[in-house]
Amino acid sequence: MEWSIETRDLRRTFHDRPVRRLFRRAVGTPVPDKVALDSVNVTVRPGELFGLLGPNGAGKTTLIKILSTLLLPSSGRALVDGIDVAKDPDNVRRRINMVSGGEHSGYGILTVRETIWMFSQFYGVPTKVARQRAEIMIQRLGLSESANTKTSKLSTGMRQKMNIIRGFVTDPKILFLDEPTLGLDVGIAREVRAFISEWIREHPERCVLLTTHYMAEADSLCDRVAIIDQGRVLACDTPANLKRDLAPDCVYRIEVPLWTDGTNPLDQMPVVRSVAMEHRGDQGRTHMRVILEDEGGIGSVTDRLAKRGARVLSLTRLEPSLEDAFLSLVGHGLTSSNGENGAR
Amino acid sequence: MRTDLVTNLRAIWGRAYVRVVGANREPSWLFFEVALPLLASFSFALIYRGLGAPEQYVGFVVVSGAMIAFWQNILWSMAAQFFWEKEMGNLELYLIAPISRMSILMGMAVGGLFMTAIRAVLILVIGTWVFGVTYQVSSWVLLAAVFVLTMGAVYGLGMLSSSLFMLFGREAWHTANLFQEPVYFASGFYFPVRALGDVGALLASAIPLTLGLDAIRQLIFSGKPVNPLFTVRTEMILLVAATILLNWAALKALRYMENLGKQSGRLTLKGQ
Q: What is the interface pTM, i.e. ipTM, of the complex?
């Protein structure tokens, strides 16, 4: 099968600049190479909306930079539409485009329409075609009223809508979206997500690779999700299958009085697979999301909490979510809260 | 092949458009770009007048004032622009596009020429009018040829420099600022470069603008002593060589630096 994206044992390390490295070695404080990606194997089919889910610094953007020809892998291979990104980047570039969250590209002096047109010219799109495509997308994303506004006067949300159109207007075969809804409010994030899924539905031969650290965004938008942490892909499947892998009886939410001593009251318990704690100072409570190896372990968990002085205020069994799958695999939650910016 | 050519031409126009539109939407540039540089030219012209220097020296200064505009457009507004593009996040979008990096630079330069030409003409007209400079052009054809060759060589130098800005960003920006005044000095903008002595003038001729300016002075102040560096013919040959060499080196350097940036991860800023 011809994959849209394929990586084979992809590895990328970063190291200090040579002079600094020599100096640090000389003074006895060498800094080890930072492994950004470690043996990453990912395949994405045509027509797929594929998500890379991971916390900040997990390696998501590094992977996108390699696939979009901005960075060379240290070892392994990365193929885009069957073409090696390291060996034939020019051919890869004809097939791709990229949009990042919080992007400030373009020039403040140009209007939205002009900016979209300008970037389309770098892909050789005839002006007439570019304008027609842009108009349709501008209307779909509700940007018509701002279309003749200088980009320096746009709000964050409007600007990101423009960036999204910039990426799609060249009709790329493979599109990379790096945290496309980062920092957007609920309504605009929803519009952007709806636009992305509609586009991929209308273009089944295309493919979108999206990175996010919003659980619910990956859950609601992606056909398949790869969970990535510290440069390694820990799991890759449909959101439904990732959730199904967790036994439904093993996820609990436990409320205890505010637990602020910085320790994990359930540490070193073999039955506990992972714990995520959320402190709610205003309520004087701590919410613990606990994933157990088996449901029989819940008794020992409540006993341990009692021994540590964390009285159980409430205990609820939950249906596993993608966040639980992530928690179970990674061992800790994401820095930002689940469902942020209205992903549900 | 044809598709690639069309795409690159579209890219040149796309990038040039920003500058053409920018000139119309922010007319304040006219004041900053014309009135302020005129002050430097006027100062030197007044000094020459005060010292009773030959009248063509005042003409040198006016012509140089116009040529500085092109120099700044190429080296600072084109090459250094890669630094700003990197800061703004545009560079990565240029680099993932299926176009030559030289097309982007050409777009910046062509767009900039629109503004630069206005600035140069205004400086020339105002300077000539205020100081009553008279010109005696020996050959308009040669003058046009020297101008085109000078631009070709200086553009090559600008593109070569842009490869440094692409990779080193802020460091390159600081270095460029450091070199600004020495380059103005060595190019002989406000005096015949021969005044630097034989060795000094020879070293200064490594900057193509030095040769171009010297040839232009010989051609437009024909019959007056201009203390030339070489003959116009020699300077044109050297400019042809510089144009070919610098543009070839720029092509290689851009590829090399891009590759180096891809290896070290320095093509984009952290967080972009």
A: 0.83
